């Protein structure tokens, strides 16, 4: 990679440079691309997840991104993490991850449940039922107040 992450983030954001970066990243192996992007996420999360959503493809990497978002983001930031990972993982997979996270990080799940309805396909009854089940489980555990 021509630029290190530190060199790259020191430059002002500029569309042509970002497009060239994306082209360069797409030419790298999955591991190199994900390593570089992960370092960017660690240093500038908003920019990193934007690059990840356009350049990365492997589902395990997006699971890692979601876990990082659940650990580090507040109620307003979690939207952007969801916007990055839901198109790559699918709504159902994200719900499974949230269900597994419920016991260890209930506050993160509560923050996420606030934004999830915006990502629902309202015509998809299975999605609605799965969301409702997670919401009700969180409510039962006292994470969501009635």
Question: How are the secondary structure elements laid out?
Answer:
Layout: H1 5-10, H2 15-27, H3 30-43, H4 45-55, H5 59-72, H6 78-89, H7 91-101, H8 106-115, H9 125-140
In short:
The protein is mostly helical and 146 residues long. It has two domains: 1-57; 74-146, no CATH class. It is 73% helix and 0% strand.
Structure write-up:
It is a single chain. The mean pLDDT is 94. The protein is mainly α and 146 residues long. The radius of gyration is 17 Å and the shape is elongated. 73% of the residues lie in helices and 0% in strands. The protein folds into two domains: 1-57; 74-146, no CATH class. The chain has helices at residues 5-10, 15-27, 30-43, 45-55, 59-72, 78-89, 91-101, 106-115, 125-140. The chain is built from nine helices and no strands.
Core attributes:
2 domains, single chain, elongated, mainly alpha, 9 helices, 146 residues, 73% helix
């Amino acid at each position: 990679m021509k630029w290190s992450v530190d060199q790259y983030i020191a430059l002002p954001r500029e569309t042509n440079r970002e497009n060239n970066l994306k082209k360069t990243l797409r030419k790298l192996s999955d591991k190199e691309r994900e390593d570089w992007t992960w370092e960017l996420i660690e240093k500038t999360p908003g920019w990193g997840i934007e690059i990840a959503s356009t350049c990365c493809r492997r589902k395990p990497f997006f699971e890692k991104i979601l876990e990082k978002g659940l650990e580090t983001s507040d109620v307003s930031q979690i939207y952007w993490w969801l916007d990055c990972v839901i198109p790559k993982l699918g709504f159902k997979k994200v719900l499974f991850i949230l269900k597994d996270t419920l016991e260890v990080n209930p506050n993160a799940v509560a923050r996420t449940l606030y934004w999830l309805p915006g990502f629902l396909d309202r015509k998809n009854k299975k999605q609605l039922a799965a969301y409702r089940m997670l919401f009700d489980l969180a409510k039962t555990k006292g994470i969501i107040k009635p």
